[in-house]
Amino acid sequence: MRRWILGGIGMGLTLGLGATEYPSIPAPEGHPLPELISGYAFRAPETQALQDDDFENPGFLWVEQGAELWATQDGKAGKSCASCHQDAAQSMAGVGARYPRWHDKLGKPVNLEQQINRCRVGAQQAEAWAFDSQPLLAMSTYIRSLSRGEPVAVDVAGPMQAWFEKGREIYYRRHGQLDLACASCHENYGKQLRSDLLSQGHSNGFPTYRLKTQGMVSLHGRFKGCMRDVRAEAYAPLSDEFLALEIYLGWRGNGLPVETPAVRH
Amino acid sequence: MARPRVKAPKTATAGEVIVVKTLISHPMESGQRKDDAGQIIPRKIIRRFEARYAGTLVFAMDLAPAISANPFIEFNLKPDASGELELTWIEDGGEQYSHSQTITVK
Known about the structure:
Mean pLDDT of chain B: 93
Strand content of chain B: over 45%
Strand order of the largest sheet of chain A: 8-7-9
Largest sheet of chain A: 3 strands, mixed
Number of strands of chain B: 8
Order of helices and strands of chain A: HEEHHHHEEHHHHEEEEHHE
Low-confidence stretches of chain A: 5-19
Order of helices and strands of chain B: EEEEEEEE
Largest interface: A-B, 10 and 12 residues
Mean pLDDT of chain A: 91
Low-confidence stretches of chain B: none
Helix content of chain B: under 10%
Strand order of the largest sheet of chain B: 2-8-7-4-5
Largest sheet of chain B: 5 strands, mixed
Distance between the termini of chain A: 18 Å
Number of strands of chain A: 9
Structural class of chain A: mainly alpha
Shape of chain B: elongated
Number of helices of chain B: 0
Oligomer: heterodimer
Radius of gyration of chain B: 16 Å
Radius of gyration of chain A: 18 Å
Strand content of chain A: 5-15%
């Protein structure tokens, strides 16, 4: 994390955002944003410090619980995650940075939470964990945290292209009574929305420890919250719509380091 | 549902001031909130934290309902001899969560 920030400062660009300079990485050609900035850069120094300290960062409570669950047997097959995947520090390194991924057998992409539940129902013969339940948040936080510092690398080539397009359509479509698209706020990053400093809305820190709710927030939980905030009826978590949005948003942040568990306010 | 995390050195030199950092997962339910049915959710917070070193109380703290969930507590300790560091979090209703570890003083 710190390494990236230092590297980022060297590349920092000012692009008509007033006096503030954010650590950024250059965006690839054809990207809607001129530069990629992690949400980390838009938060207060105190919040950044909380994220940077692996002990004080409360997200590590979930990481630790996830590590315990990794080694815990569950289901009729009497298996733990470790029974198939052995040491997560090796087998899962960098994996979280690549999700959502195309799944050939299913003929559709799966995100990390869906893949965890596929393992639970399939290999472990256990019950799927409910969306945003404590164990699912802990496991997805744990697996994503093992990619910390790795660049986000969501592959949108081939069959993923249709999902990518669908996600982009949702990103730019105005929703709800307030008639706002994701882009209405997040392409106006660096500006104030009342008291809130708008970020680029990347997904590289998710699941994220949020100071407001004092707990982990999943990406689809955040989507739901945003849609509620614009007074729209939200899609269901883990629905195809949110999955497409997750794929598109992941692509927008490709190259940014995974920060899970990030701390945001 | 509470899970303590503790960071304290395993060894120290005599007279050295060491830092003990603790974090416990706990909702710190304030007693001010209502559930969906309009009923008050009863208060349930960590109300006291105690640290004993080699059997002696070295640090204690009374916590209040306004303290956020997952309270982080940090304190200094000057161990003169090896001993057991015992940390206890006491919840409303009397339930206790604890962590202990040995610090070797050279």
